[in-house]
Amino acid sequence: MSDTTGSDYYVARTAALLRGHDRLCAYGHELLAERYGAAAVPAILAEARDEFAALIPAIPYIGGRANPLTDTLEQLASMLALYRVLQRRGRPVAEVGALVHAMAQRRIDSMPALLRRLAGRLYMSRLWRRRTERKALASQRGVYPGNVVFEVVPGDDSGAEWGINYLECGLVKFLHAQGADEFTPYMCFIDFLMFPAMGIRLERQGTLAQGCAQCDFRFHAA
Prior knowledge:
By secondary structure, this protein is an alpha+beta fold. The protein is 58% helix and 11% strand. Helix 5 (69-88) packs across helix 6.
């Protein structure tokens, strides 16, 4: 898959991506007003929308809708756009990271608790694990350079039921290509918001963003 074809995939979906960006940023409207004043919010959001639109052709193609990470990359580009806008206003990365975490928590909390728990039960099921094993093998073929590469590992002495070692991360690659490595750890932390909401306890000793050889996810039923 060439870069041109990948760019065309996202560019062709610009209108839908902008709508998704607007929905995502809506979780931050009140938070932005609290931090920077209500009068500043329209300009921040308008500038972030323009920034996101400019990023659309740069999102790496990794298989389109067939790959769930596509949605994650699109959302990451939205948050990168917001980060850049606030960065230009002199806001430090830790402050923007905290804002993004608060937005992510609001989005998670907006999802029905029953659906989150059902998603967690599915995630911890043998069926999902086998599905993930097949996807791991596919990722190791390296068809899309901007994708993740990972392996599934069995449970261990810590009590983890199973785990994933991410050997390459599409999010890390994208933010590195965009010169935003300092923002990456704040995006990684969202995993510790998402998994508990599904009734899963996540353990992780290190990440690629921290310079480790892998991101070692270990999943425990809560």
